[in-house]
């Protein structure tokens, strides 16, 4: 894996949710990703839809206060938050047309479009659907964590 300390990577919502969630094989690796961001050894970006995903998921569970707390904590460590623009939506439509039949979700094409339109090539995500989008590189949180110094 290339040196991530020298570039901005996109952070998927599932990394945040695994990091704060219950016991799961992704919990510790995602906590390590979040620690790397908090310690400024990894520079991460998100788009506004990442916050929406967190609010939506925890809101669906009726865990409203937790939703807000998680989103606020995320915004306290990730300083680079991109809006979703018309240009991003136009690119997302192209990506959705190209990749939806293979299983790529609409929200993931929006993230990929924001990444592409802002010069970000890599996303840290547990979501293997991102592997289908040829224009970006997915880094599994477990792979990232395995390369951290002991």
Protein model, in words:
The chain is of the alpha/beta class and 150 residues long. The chain has a domain at 4-83 and 120-143: 3-Layer(aba) Sandwich (Rossmann fold), CATH 3.40.50. It has helices at 13-20, 27-38, 48-60, 64-77, 86-99, 106-117, 141-146, and strands at residues 8-11, 43-47, 80-82, 122-124, 137-139. The chain has a five-stranded parallel β-sheet. Helix 3 (48-60) packs antiparallel against helix 4 and helix 5 crosses helix 6 (106-117).
Helix share of residues?
Answer: 40-55%
Outline the low-pLDDT stretches: none
Morphology? globular
Output the CATH class name of the domain at 4-83 and 120-143: Alpha Beta
User: In the CATH scheme, what's the topology name of the domain at 4-83 and 120-143?
Assistant: Rossmann fold
Give the overall pLDDT as a whole number.
Answer: 94
Helix-and-strand structural type: alpha/beta
Any guess at the CATH architecture of the domain at 4-83 and 120-143?
A: 3-Layer(aba) Sandwich
Pattern of helices and strands: EHHEHHEHHEEH
Radius of gyration: 15 Å
The biggest beta sheet reads: 5 strands, parallel
Strand content: 5-15%
Number of helices: 7
């Amino acid at each position: 894996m290339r040196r991530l300390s020298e570039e901005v990577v996109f952070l998927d919502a599932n990394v945040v949710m695994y990091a704060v969630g219950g016991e799961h094989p992704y919990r510790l690796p995602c906590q390590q990703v979040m620690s790397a961001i908090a310690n400024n050894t990894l520079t991460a970006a998100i788009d506004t839809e990442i916050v929406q995903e967190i609010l939506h998921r925890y809101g669906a569970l009726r865990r409203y206060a937790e939703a807000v707390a998680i989103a606020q904590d995320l915004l306290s460590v990730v300083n680079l938050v991109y809006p979703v623009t018309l240009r991003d939506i136009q690119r997302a439509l192209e990506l959705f047309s190209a990749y939806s039949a293979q299983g790529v979700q609409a929200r993931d094409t929006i993230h990929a479009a924001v990444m592409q339109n802002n010069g970000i090539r890599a996303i840290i995500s547990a979501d293997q659907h991102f592997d289908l989008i040829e224009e970006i590189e997915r880094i599994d949180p477990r792979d990232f964590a395995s390369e951290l110094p002991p």
